[in-house]
Amino acid sequence: MEDSEWSPYCYSSSFDKDIHIRFFQMMCETLPSDYQGQEINRLTLAYFAISGLDILGALDRVLKMLFLVSVYFLILNNFFSSVFGSFMPIHIGAETDLRFVYCAAAICFMLKNWSGMDREKAKDYILNCQSYDGGFGLVPGSESHGGATYCAVAALKLMGFIEDDLISKSTPSSIINVPLLLEWSLQRQTVDGGIQGRPNKASDTCYAFWVGGVLRILGAHKFLDSGALHGFLLTCQSQYGGCSKFPGKLPDLYHSYYGLSAFNLLEESGLKPLCIDLGISDVVAFGM
Ligand SMILES: [Zn+2]
Q: How far is the CA of 79 from the centre of ligand 1 (A)?
């Protein structure tokens, strides 16, 4: 191949399932050295790598690792059952915002045990984070943001305060301002077909899931230009497997997982259905 023909991205006009399986398998077996500084995020990285293979229907590639992780989670389940009750990542000096409210709701939902969480107070906190423009900020009074908006809507859904397909069921008494939220979310699709996290920002692969997931919960994903979004995601698909944040960059594990999840929202063939609220496959979510 001529050097001028070689490119790690924009190499295919279709979703390449096999190359993504090889990418996530490689991430399970040997993380690139760039991740060495992320020691404290090991479990998160394992989640992206293993759940990526799960959505691709290829968990059999990493059976040994799965056994070790399953033992860990047996342990972890007992730990959370006995001490969980905080919405901070650590006990002292930590941030406190919608990300951790969402994590608390997701853990309680998975454990089927809400005794460690005051759902009414959590709901009030989330509602206070909805901004004048309809999106949600990480804390009350802050700028609307795609990730925070996903955390807010998915947490309300997990806690049982809102249902799927909100736009067809929305009433004036709905606890959130659905029309404004819908407008803000749809305005995040940009001219290149991708989705931005905030106004005046470039499209970014991960927001195709964060904002796309919100629109799916609202029942409004049909209003997105899905063909244009699919085209944007393909420009972020790497020859090595995985996805990059922007077209023209090398892939990373975080954007690979959320790129895959975004392809899933667009009902790409060959992928397991996704539980939007938890960001994992439906099979895993409802087998809990
Ligand atoms: Zn991103």
A: 31
Per DSSP, helices labelled H in the chain are 17-29, 42-55, 63-83, 98-111, 119-128, 146-158, 166-169, 178-186, 205-218, 226-235, 253-265, 282-286
Query: Distance from the CA of 255 to the center of ligand 1, in angstroms?
Result: 6
What phi and psi values does residue 212 have, to the nearest 5 degrees? -60, -35
Ligand 1 center from residue 170 Cα (angstroms): 30
Its pTM stands at 0.86
Contact (Cβ atoms closer than 8 angstroms) between residue 63 and residue 87: no
The domains of the chain are located at 84-162
Instruction: Tell me the pLDDT tens digit for each residue of 242-276.
Output: 999 999 889 999 999 999 999 999 999 999 999 99
Distance 207 CA to ligand 1 centre (A): 6
Whether residue 231 has pLDDT greater than 60: yes
Question: How far, in Å, from the CA of 264 to the mean position of ligand 1?
Answer: 17
Per-state percent for the chain, helix, strand, coil, to nearest 5: 55, 5, 40
Both tokens of residue 163? 């249902």
